[in-house]
Amino acid sequence: MPGLMQLARRRRVALSVVVAIVALATLPVVRRLRIDPDVLNLLPQSGPAVRAFRTYLSEFGSFDRVYVVFEVPDGESIDDSAPLVDRFAELLRREPEIARVDTQLFDPGKDWSYVFDRVFMLLGPEATAGAIDRLAAGDMRGEVGKARERLRLPSPAIKELVRQDPFDYLGLLRERLSAANAFVRIDPTAEGYVSRDGRARLVIATPVQPPFDLAFSRRVKAVFDRTAEAVRAEARQNADLGDAANVRIRYAGGYHLALETERLMRREAFFNLVGSLAGILVLLLLVFRSAWLFVAGALPMTVGGLLAAAVVGFSHPNLSGAAAGASALLFGLGIDGLVLLYARYLEERPTSGSADEAVGRLGGSAASMLLGMFTSAATFLALTLVEFPSLTELGRVIGLGMVFGGIATFLLVPALLPATVKPRRPLRLPGLPAFVSRRRRGILWAAGAATLILGAASPWLRLDLSLDRLRPHTAQLEFEREIVRRFGLPEDLIVILSEGPDLESLLTTNQRLVDEVGRSAPGVALFSAAQGLPTAASQARVAELLTRSGLSATELWGRVTKAADAEGFTPDAFAPFLDRAQRLLDPSSRVSFEGYQQHGLGELLSPYITRTSAGFAVAAYAHQRSAGDVETVRAIVNRIGGPLRLTGMPVVNRELSASLVPQFMAGVAIGGVAVFLLMWFTFRNLKLTALALLPTVLGIVWSAGILALLGAVVDLFSLFGVLAFIGIGVDFGIHLVHRYASEGDLTEALARIAPVNLVAAGIAILGCGTLITSSYPPLHSLGVVSVVTLATCVAGSLLVLPATLEVGRSRGDHKTE
């Protein structure tokens, strides 16, 4: 090993050229890396809920839509701006990126005669029985008289509606279809989706692709910006559209959120990296007062990071925001190797004849450095074996970075070390060994008490394993939540998905689900395709009711005309209704999926039924109102069985929680075994290996208790990040045990290694601590956990480990005597 280091120094020019060429060669690949905004890629892919949710997204699009909010100032009504809103929707429908635009429950631009003529089929047997009673009632005049009450509203639309439907069957249908709308719970009598205060109106647009393609999301944003500008320009020329300057137009949804997230994560990754590096280099300058260290300090880990990014980017060009943002960890975790070598070089240079001779004496420190770097790499690379893609990416980026960084440190530091150094006091803490020797038993008793107390507190550590925790806190996300509150949009929808070649079979199963929920869980709000497309059996029962009623269009014409005349209506007042009476009473008419499509009403069913390559997919939605609703719906789905699969965000969150413990234990086992084997291979001594691990074990227990007492919230990302500190924190123990084992002088080893460990800890804390300022919850949480864990690990290495070694040495001396 010393020979390789001396060779690197003798060939330093050639080595520098090769490293520069390699680093430059990585840049084209590194530039391919992109931030992946799809939060589902952060989750285990084998869980049934996640697999079903991915199927749902691929077949139905996604929950992510574009919400367009039109708002007027206080004291004004958005109804006055209806022409402007309608024109915006009209222009938006022309854009190829937009699949559909939803402005209200019954869009007047559609031909609704298909459903109006089949209203009884849609109402179902029970509602149809009551509706027929209105037609067969002896007092037809009383039923017609109710229509006059509806005409009191001074609206041409209401007048035409009464002529089409004097018995208000469409009112019944409207209530039914409104109840089926799981995505907008707005007053169905209002024109459009209007907020409760009457100042804002919502338009919902569904683009043709999901928002996880950033290039497509940029096109979508451009479409909305262009449309808003076009409608404002038209309003300036056409007063009928209203005062566009008085209307504020804002957007929310997955597409705008994806773009904001990508910008945020790129910015935070850059500032975390620069802030971490600047803080570290300033710390090194203050401690060592070396311009060389300030200039060259970041070079090995920069090379290692570029190589790691190139390897990852070659096969995985899309990185999660968490993995990209956490890249700043590399400098905090890797520069301590350079510090160790440089400190040892300063120690050896005054007693060496030349710089080459001093480099030749760095073999022991180089071995310790490589072991520390590789144990850190091992724990991060162990994350690639767990089933969380985001953690796999983090493990791959940081693990490979530590491997390449360790090799670069081993070669570049000896090559670039200055030939002369200014004489200065050696980096030592001479008072620490004496303090530990005098207080060793007190230190161990205090450590034992702290371990018991903090270990007992650790189960109270707060965990938040929801997907929402993995979303960045951005202005777009806050605005989306404001829309949910303001317009009463439902949250936390449970999805019950079924697929198969035969639609009627799926609808029958779906109806069983509706019946079972209504019977055994009436408190659960269920939205399904049954309201828009009843089963063939349901429609057959309606047809039987119509046949048994004996009503005919001719008879109905006479009775309605007579009642209308008695109530003072003109003879042709209800002609539109009577013209379709034959179709309304026809028992052979049916509603069908194809009928909706042929009459341009397919979007009414699109959230619930879609055609797939294998047939059809049908989705029902349950609104989670209490914590037990998921298990209630799960029990019903399990009883029905068949093609039903349970998914949706609440279900995915529960599946995530359930899979965490085995995944966490697997990560602990893999990381712990990897570190233990590497250390045992180096020390070839079980006792020394266990001693080197002691500060890390204590540090993790202490940090869990401290975080619990502080009320910190830990998400799945930072929880698994703790596994990485098995390899990071153990470096502190490795350096002390390695030097003590090789030289046999605990006092000198502690005096020399303690300041190195303190500087290394400071570097790591600066590298990780910049994440605390992140607005992205996983990175913020990882930063908090990192700082606390590093602080506890270094405390264990400075006090508990040397106290344990001192007690063991004293016992050994006593036995020798």
What does this structure look like?
By secondary structure, the protein is of the alpha+beta class. Helices cover 65% and strands 8% of the residues. The strands form 4 sheets. Strands 2, 3, 4, 5 and 6 form a 5-stranded antiparallel sheet that branches. Strands 9, 10, 11, 12 and 13 form a 5-stranded antiparallel sheet that branches. A two-stranded parallel ribbon has the order 1-7. Strand 4 and strand 5 (200-207) form a beta hairpin. Helix 17 runs antiparallel to helix 18 (389-416). Mean pLDDT is 81; it is low at 182-189 and 813-817.
The biggest beta sheet is recorded as:
5 strands, antiparallel
Q: Note the gap between the termini.
A: 39 Å
In CATH terms, the superfamily of the largest domain is Multidrug efflux transporter AcrB transmembrane domain
**How many domains?**
3
Q: What's the architecture of the largest domain in CATH terms?
A: Up-down Bundle
The rough form would be described as: elongated
Q: How many runs of DSSP E, i.e. beta strands?
A: 14
Helix/strand class: alpha+beta
Give the strand content.
5-15%
Question: Radius of gyration from the CA trace?
Answer: 36 Å
- Number of H- or I-type helical stretches: 34
Low-pLDDT runs: 182-189, 813-817
CATH topology of the largest domain: Multidrug efflux transporter AcrB transmembrane fold
Q: Classify the helix fraction into a percent range.
A: 55-70%
Mean pLDDT figure: 81
CATH class division of the largest domain: Mainly Alpha
